[in-house]
Design a protein that fits this description.
Layout: H1 15-45, E1 64-69, E2 74-81, E3 92-94, H2 98-103, E4 111-115, E5 121-130
Parallel strand pairs: 2-3
Antiparallel strand pairs: 1-2, 1-5, 4-5
């Protein structure tokens, strides 16, 4: 059942908070559009293979990947998953995150300059890939 706006209660907000929330929402919307555009760009430039022909050391959906963020020096191991399976506490990151979108398609030893959620660039280097 779809609710009309009339069915919603009247609410109140502080002016400064309303402005901050508006800006936050608009920024998140821009970030998502940029991320989606970047992911589509990666898909467009990728060499496409069947699963049987994909080299085993390439990050694909479901892969467990160990990577190094060369900017921070942090090494992490995560599994790349679709959004509904994501659970950061279990080490499963969504393809629709900046890290997920940046890692897809890279092979062991390759690196990419890729922005984080805040727009700061990081160099992500693939250390190891394990297929499911």
């Amino acid at each position: 059942m779809t609710r009309s706006k009339a069915a919603r209660p009247h609410i109140h907000m502080i002016d400064g908070e309303a402005d901050a929330l508006t800006e936050l929402t608009l920024q998140k919307q821009r970030d998502h559009v940029r991320l989606y555009e970047m992911l589509l760009g990666e898909i467009d430039r990728a060499a496409i293979h069947s699963r049987d022909d994909m080299p085993p050391d390439v990050v694909t959906m479901g892969s467990e990947v160990t990577f190094l963020d060369e900017k921070s020096g942090t090494e992490r191991t995560v599994r790349l998953v679709y959004p509904g399976e994501a659970d950061i506490s279990a080490g499963r990151i969504s393809i629709l995150t900046p890290i997920g979108a940046g890692l897809i398609g890279l092979g062991v030893g390759q690196s990419i300059q890729w922005p984080d959620r805040g727009g700061a660039d990081h160099r992500l280097k693939v250390i190891a890939v394990r297929q499911p």
